What does this fold into?
Amino acid sequence: MSVPGEEQISSRPVPPVHVLTVASMALVVAGGIVMASHLPGRPPLGLPLVFLGAAGAMLVASVLALTRVGRFDWRTFRVVGGWAILAYAVIAGMLEYVFVLDGTRGAVLIVLSLMLLVFAVDIPIVLAFSVARFQQPERLL
Amino acid sequence: MAMAETTVHVDSAGTSIAPPATAVPSTIVPLPGIPVVVAVLGGLVVAIATNKLWALDFFHVMGGALWTGIDLFVGLIIGPILRRMSVQARVEFSSRFMPKMLLLMPTLVIVTLASGFQLARQFGNLSSSAPLHPWIVASFVVVGVLTLIAIGVLEPANLAVLFELRKPRPNGELIGRLMRRFVMSAGIIGAAQVATLVIMTKLASG
It folds into this structure.
């Protein structure tokens, strides 16, 4: 199979991984705002759970789309994703630390933690995909 | 993310590129900056753990002022200048500017948000019965929008440009397209930061 040129790489069609992941981020941010606007009291969990569920579904759809990307520079994806996971694990950990320190517990803490988890997975996917999509795909063995 | 030094040369149309000219920094992430980031985050943890008002105020004001100032400066001053520069000049500027932003901005954002949340809690503004609570919620919304634009549009464009610059023959058309996206989103973020200034000055003056 021939290796595509740079112009072909930059203009080739790709699955909507970026859009789906950013949509997931938007939903989790919306849920986070609803939760944070009720802290330090006990926030109602209905709406945040809807946002979290939808964000999770978008993330799953994004990962599924990623598996259908075909020829792709997975090495670059892993390098960028790995660094991004490291960076955003620190940021998510910092926010989790603040919530715990402020006495957030129980179901509220679980929902907030899951939101942080989705957020911390979304970002590496967005960054890694955005870079790897413009790289020369790995050669098929 | 260490990579070999490469050279870039772009023609006036920005479509074809051939070597020599610009030396691209040897790593995407500026490694000498990492100890500084670790020190700043360590200081933030201490400030939050001890809950000292002065320390929290310091991190929030310092981080927020730099975050807002840099966003406004990049979006409203650097961005329009960059748009008028040649592709070659943009590439040279970006290859040195963007790696630093990669480390600086997330650090400023987390420092500002974490210390700000603690301050709002200390001052009682997080409570939904507080008179300034709607302003706090408004700040959450603005920060949420800023986050989405920064991480969903600006940062991916930034990283993609940096990686493109490392290729033996970078695609000038792609770099130009991504840079336009970067400059446009920086402008939107700069404008949104004006809203942040309005909210924060209101919160500070009661």
Notes: The mean pLDDT of chain A is 86. Chain A touches chain B through 38 residues (CB under 8 Å).
